[in-house]
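We emphasize that the prediction below concerns an isolated chain of 890 residues; any contacts that depend on oligomerization or on bound cofactors are therefore not represented. The input was used exactly as deposited, without trimming of termini.
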Amino acid sequence: MKHIIFGREDYLHGELHLSTARKLDALNLLVEEGRVYLHRQGDFPYEGGILTPWREEGHTTYGYERRGERYIMETRGPEEVARIFLQEIYSEGVEGEVLAFGLDPSYLYLEAMRILLDEYHCPWQEARERVGRQIIILEEGPEISVRDPRLLELKGELEERGEGPEFHPGDFPQKFQWAVGEVAKSYRALISQRRREIYHKDLNFPNPQGLFIGSDAREAADLWDQIHRLFDELVARPQLDLPDLIFCLERHTDPVINLDLRTRHKLKLIPREVLVDLFVTRDPFLQKFYRAMGVEVVEELNILSYARGLRRQRPLPSGGEVLFKVMAKDLEGGKLYLYEDAFTMDREVVEMFQNGEEFYCTIPTEKLPVYYNFGFFRGEEAYEVVDPYAKALSVNGRRGYRFENEDQFYQGGFVPAVENPVICELHVKDATATLDLPPEEAGTFLALSREGLTLGGRAVGFDHLKELGVDYLHLMPIHNYITVWEQAASKFDGDNYNWGYDPDHYFALENSYGTHPEDPLSALRGLHQLVATAHRHGIGIIQDVVYNHLYLGERSDLALLNPQALRRWDDGSLSDGSGTGCEVASEEPLTQKLIFDSIHHSQQLGVDGFRFDLAALTDRHTLEEIGRRTGEQNPHCLLYGEPWMAAESVLARELRLQGGDGGLYLFDDDFRNGLRGSSFDYSPGWILGDNGAQPHLEESLLGGGKHPLNLPYVSCHDDEVLADFLDHFGGSEGEKIRRMKLALAVQMLTPGPVLFHQGDEFFRRRHRNNPYNGPQEATNIHWEERVEKEQLVQYVRDLIRLRKKMDLKHRILHSEAGFMVLENTGGRYRIFLSNTPQGRDIGPWLYPQTRWAFTHEGLVDEKCYMGQIISGRAVYVITFEGEKIPPKGV
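Result of the prediction step, given as a token string:
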């Protein structure tokens, strides 16, 4: 039997201290049977020991029992530790050795002599021999001042006899050092494997090639304070030129630090031990142990000084065929940083030339493809900036990616013009997350392009949209945005979701929409395939662009390079017309050029049109120029946007949006609120029996509306979708569906472009208002629901077919509250729209030879007889044959 005693606080935070655990690992190689005596400092009195077998749980705990509960022994100091442990050991009468760590050898010797002489009445010489033979000091602790009168007496007697503490450890210390070396080797292998596996979603993807810094729990407190100060600095200035820092502190983590996206992932806390590059400790054993593993060890650390001095850089002269350039105001010392991959810390540095505010350099073509960033100074502070013009980015947008043959992703043309186009607004991930596809495809551009997908014999995915008859797919933002973790492993985490209206970049695509997000070109390949598939079937692609604000505001790369990219009030505070904290100054020349270039790049990728988020925050001259430029590249380019701001802006009145600027269609919220009802106060609309907006609806049906170029819609991503909205007003599901059918009928019979949100065609619910950040389950398109509601889908499909049969040039034959009769002047149709619950006699508007063309069940072709009664809350369309002979009295 061997007794292992520890003299420091070795049981911390409910677990063994790292130093203690590794010592026990070494002892496990040498000791067959033993007991371990642990403690932590405290104020509780010792009331009786509890011993548990060492091998049962990897270590023995020795403590005390109080009120029926077990505790690790808590003591007031090392003197009490030595006394209690030795009393327990000698009370057993066990002759086993005592292996001591962290205790003063002289004090331990005196305490053991006192117990043997006073309590067991051993002769002096026998006690000396027994103590010397039994106690083996494996690690000396700090000196303990002797204050106990009896120990002072024994110390004096030893001095009088000319004796001192004598220990006879034999060869055990050498064996122990050998065991420590073996443990160090095996432990290095273990934590090396952990580091290879650390690229894991539960730890928020720390950079496996970053700087890993470890510490034992005793040193963690100082580092903890430094880490939080550094976190605050990175939040304020995410471009600080630092390598990625990953701290492995015993039982320390901070979800705020790990989850905050504003720091560019440069700082992570991992509550587990992995192989580190640097270990901070004053513990002598841990210093030796980590050095034995080949790890650098220091007793104290200044994080910033150490990290900045660690990165290795190799100069590369400018020269070659590939040009890099960037505009930067008020910055100095432009550099191009080249990296081998998305994560490596070391880099090549190319000094850039300066011409006014432009910095430029060149590199050889053979260097491509390459990851890169720009470096600048402002005063003494060094920054690393992602290129705002990068056409592709590394995962999570941390580095630009330059590659050859960019034109491989360009499309050869655009879809032809459609006179009255139907636009389906959708989110790439929502539309494809539940499709029966390999996991790497679901939620991606490629998934949205897949043809031939069915469920229960019904078309789903792209084929559903194609069969529905839509003319354009409106893709909610696909430019790189910040608030999702792009790695494939996190794709379907419920909270790893965002609509994308938090832009960080205006050229590169969102990598999470690629099948392999770690490949910077994966999303480009997917979009290329989607555009090609859509174009092959005559369907255009609309890109939702967010040029009104930047998610990081003045902390963004664009604002660092050009502070004038954001609008400010006279007092220097940021103008916030977007309601997100800032707004982009589209009228500023460099920013305006960036917007033009971004639009041009998207058109090269085959985008057929653009939806402008908060278009009213983009100055009218920029919008007019966008209209001119896009028209030159594609005469059929479709442009539309939101005509409102979210809050007051510093944008000058004369620069604000006016109807018709740049051929921009504008969302008609009066049409939406009048037809279905207001999402703000839940006042009912026309389909719910309120006829106050009927004049506006009639005007829209005749080709007018709120704006010169009007875009009617019933619901979009904002606020509540149609089904969720109607739920507020009660009624049976059948009643709600009749209202839904009526709403879409009015919309689809309205001339000009119209937009609906994907899922409205089968009365989809999200059960949440504005789920911009998820959860994913609330936003997914559940395709089994589309299969279950095939009749609704067929109704909308028939509506769109009816729309395309007409020229949508109407005149109103009759109007009364809740009932409208229209004639389609370009075809042989009459349209009856009723929101009243009771039926209506339409006999006065029938011809002798009349047929039903459309009812509440969809397209039909049946003879219609005089004196017909139509049901309420529905749309009916008739057509006629032969000569138009109206009935009498009409």
